[in-house]
Amino acid sequence: MQNLVKNWEVEASFKPNLNDWRTVDHEKYSFAINGSEPQGAENMLKVRVSKPTHLVYLPNEYAQVGTYNAIIAPNEYYDPTYSDFASSHKTFKRMMPTFAWEVLEVYSGPPTVAFRWRHWGVMKNDYVGINNKGEKVTAKAHGGPIDIQGVTVADVNDKVQLQAVRTWFDPLDMFRQIAPDGVVRKEDVPKGARPEDVVEQAQEGVKVPQEQELPDATVQSAKEVQETIREIRRKEENGEALGMPVGHGEVQEGAGCPMGFR
Q1: Is the model's pLDDT at 217 over the cut of 70?
Q2: Each residue of 180-217: b (16+ CB within 10 Å) or e?
Q3: Cβ neighbours of residue 83 under 8 Å, at least 6 residues apart?
Q4: 222 pLDDT band (50/70/90 cuts)?
Q5: What is the largest distance, in Å, between two alpha-carbon atoms of the chain?
Q6: Alpha helix locations (H) across 63-217?
Q7: Within this chain, do residues 148 and 186 fall inside the same structural domain, yes or no?
Q8: What is the CATH number of the domain that holds 81?
Q9: Do 152 and 84 belong together in one domain?
Q10: Which of 5, 30, 40, 44 is most deeply buried (CB count within 10 A of its CB)?
């Protein structure tokens, strides 16, 4: 489940074409947060802007969402309406250069898997985001841990692809840990400013490891990805069956693989 969810997060954040997603059952997939109305994968790829956004520039009527904007409700620290895909990743990934995700307990096995998880890291850099009033919010880095926990119930098919995903967690818990004293700096955002530029300017000079620009550690390094691509092409040219990608762990017989390799 840990590998499946990490691979799903990579796809939801970096594959704008839903047909390229291998971790989900395309005909049945849906997700819901805290008992909300279930949404399809399209909701993570684009969202219709339903209210005026005169404070912050948005490129067009539809904007790529990503995992952060799909699960965080508008609040005094952050508002997905005033943030696009690029600025959301800069906001959270630069604040916490490492934001690990792991399964803590599994309560039931397939086809309905219930498990408890944690998403955690260290606040090494300032938090910079845009809140529900269109203000730039800055919270100084405190160097301490940020630990978010929740519960997910997921239905999977016989290929170990996600179908119905239901998650419960406190979305404000992270912001309470970012600003434990509740003291943050709020500033007006220039009219027409792009969210990405607002965050970029405030975090100028902040560097994170290249691999941490991804939502989480991927299964393969860049070198392994290239080796896998070369091997796939070689086997396709020779008419051979495709095996596991370089660096991929062993999969039990009949278990299937969330990345779609056989």
Answers
A1: no
A2: eeeebeeeebeeebbbbebbbebbeebebeeebeebbe
A3: 68, 69, 91, 129, 130, 195
A4: low
A5: 63
A6: 66-71, 85-95, 173-178, 195-202
A7: yes
A8: 3.10.450.50
A9: yes
A10: 44
